[in-house]
Amino acid sequence: MTLRSCFESYRTVLGDVFEKISSQEDVFGRAGSLLADEAARDGLINVIGPGGHATLAVEEVLWRAGGLAPVNAILDAGTNLIHGAKRSCIMERTPGYAKSVLDAYGLPSREDEPLVIVNGYGINVMCVETVLEAKKRGMKTIAVTSRSFAERTPPDHPARHRSGKNLYEEADVFIDCCLPYGDAVVEFEGMRQKAGAVTTFCLCFAMNLLMLSTIHSLLERGIEPPLWMSANIPGGDAQNRLNEERYRGRIKHLF
To answer: What domains are there in the chain, each with its CATH number?
Structure first.
């Protein structure tokens, strides 16, 4: 395999996955409408990634140019990779941890508040407990995860929730991120393990489509969506200051 063909293989898989994700217009429409309901009442769009790399998809929609301003990112220190990759894996398999995280963020502030749960695999303890706990608290849940990955993971895998439940089955709305089984997708001759992970691309692409769907729903209602502007272009700081003041003290990780 040449280096060029290696790159082409990776790009082709990602292109196919993006096409599958973007074909779910009806699901994105329902999810976007649910989030638009919250934004229209000046509420917050809560987003959590229960697990190490899943937090990257949460950070992707926080204070992002062209993104919705009222995104309340739940960035738990216990599962953030900066505090230890293996530690993150241990924490996402710890029973009862999800409840503590939701408590720490004071969620929900009221009934029917939405929570977007983004996780490529959708099987780990924290992941499943997050959706179950959120539903118990009366929250509306949107899952961005992979159905095929969850279905192919053995029921006795140590990462699984003891109930054997999957995130995609428990959420009110399920968006399939179409993650290929095993995550890595590029084969090298003589190597058993594939290379080139795609989880973050799958999740971030799906999350941006979800934000676009929400913006589209707000515009259809005649509501101008509160968006961030790049702070690195002229006028960015001044434009963002309006949203900063509007959501100061409400979005935990904004300042």
So the answer is: 3-247 (3.40.50.10490)
Per the CB < 8 A criterion, the answer to whether 127 and 119 are in contact is: yes
- Long-range interactions of 181-184: CB distance < 8 A, separation 24+: 181/148, 181/149, 181/152, 183/120
Q: 55 and 78 in contact (C-beta within 8 Å)?
A: no
Per-residue burial over 194-214, b if 16 or more Cβ lie within 10 Å, else e, is eebbbbebbbbbbbbbbbebb
Which amino acid is it at 165?
K
pLDDT (mean) for 102-120: 95
Instruction: Give the separation between CA 188 and CA 186, rounded to whole angstroms.
Output: 7
Q: What is the pLDDT of residue 101?
A: 97
Find out whether 39 and 11 touch, Cβ atoms under 8 Å. no
Structure tokens at 142: 């949107």
Contact criterion met (CB below 8 Å) for 143 and 115:
no
* Both tokens assigned to 255: 């300042």
Angstrom distances, CA of residue 186 to CA of 19, 151, 180, 214: 19, 22, 11, 34
**Over the stretch 28-72, which tens digit does the pLDDT of each residue have?**
999 999 999 999 999 999 999 998 999 999 999 999 999 999 999
